[in-house]
Amino acid sequence: MPVATSPVRPTAVQVRIGGRWIAGQELGRRTGTAGADEILVSHHGHLVWVDQQSVRES
């Protein structure tokens, strides 16, 4: 099972979904089952693991 890490405090990020960038907060990181780095992002209380390449700091 992948190990997740968590930042000291949430970091403001933007996530690319459907060609648009939306605001969110980074809550943790892990290496996914396929070996890709993933970031746990919260957007209005919804949590999702997103490929690191689809996330940028805001």
Q: Which key features would you list for this structure?
A:
globular, 6-stranded antiparallel β-sheet, single chain, 58 residues, 64% strand
Instruction: Provide the gyration radius in Å.
Output: 11 Å
Major beta sheet summary: 6 strands, antiparallel
Q: How far from one another are the termini? A: 30 Å
Number of strands: 6
Task: List the helices and strands in order.
Answer: EEEEEE
Structure summarized in a few sentences:
0% of the residues lie in helices and 64% in strands.
What does the model show?
It is a single chain. This protein is an all-beta fold and 58 residues long. The protein contains no helices and 6 strands. Strands 1, 2, 3, 4, 5 and 6 form a 6-stranded antiparallel beta sheet that branches. The model has no long low-confidence stretch (mean pLDDT 88).
What's the topology here?
Elements: E1 4-5, E2 11-17, E3 20-31, E4 37-43, E5 46-51, E6 55-57
